[in-house]
Protein: Xanthine-guanine phosphoribosyltransferase
Organism: Albidovulum marisflavi
Amino acid sequence: MTDRLPHEKGFHVSWDQIHRDARALAWRLDGKGPDDGGWRAVVAITRGGMAPAMIVSRELDIRVVDTISVKSYNHQAQTQPRVIKAPQADIMGDQGEGVLVVDDLVDTGKTLELVRKLYPKAHFATVYAKPEGRGMVDTYITEVSQDTWIFFPWDMALQYVEPYRGRD
Ligand SMILES: O=P(O)(O)OC[C@H]1O[C@H](OP(=O)(O)OP(=O)(O)O)[C@H](O)[C@@H]1O
Ligand SMILES: Nc1nc2[nH]cnc2c(=O)[nH]1
Ligand SMILES: [Mg+2]
C-alpha cells in the first residue's frame, strides 16, 4: 500500500510483557461469554495470535482451541489477506457464536474484517490495537499509534552490541 503512514516508531514487546498483557486480556474477557456456559472455544489467528490464545485459554480454562490461518503481510508490506486454513466447522457453529477469536494485534483491521465476515457472531480480541483497525475488535488491552510497528519477542533475538567507548 502506498498511501499509508510509515512506521516511524518501534514498540518492542518482551516475552514478559506479552505474557502480562495477554493475561490482562483474559481477565477482561472472563465472564463476557454467552450466559449459557461461557466461551465454547478459543480460535487463534495464526501465527501471531497463537501465543496470546494459549495464555488466554489457559487463564480461562478453555480446552477447545483451534486456529485460522490468515496471511496479510510479507514482512512489513501489506498484501490482500487470504484464509490459508479454516477452523473446524463444528467448533465454529453457524456464525461463531460463543467463540473467542484471538490475535496479537489489529493494525488496518483487514485481517479481522475477513474473519468477521466468516464468523459475525464470534467475539474478537487482540492484545494490541492501532486506531485504524480498533473498530474491528471487541476487546483489546493496549493501543499504540498508527505509525508504530510492534516488534514481538518471537521475531527478535538478543544481540551483542559494542560498548559506547568501543565504537569508531
Ligand atoms: O489489521 P491488519 O492490518 O490486517 O494486520 C494485523 C495482522 O497482521 C499480522 O499478521 P501477519 O499477516 O503478518 O501474519 P503472522 O501473524 O503470521 O505474522 C498480525 O499478527 C495480525 O494478524
Ligand atoms: N509484528 C507486527 N506485525 C504487524 N502486522 C501489522 N502490523 C504489525 C505490527 O505493528 N507488528
Ligand atoms: Mg497475524
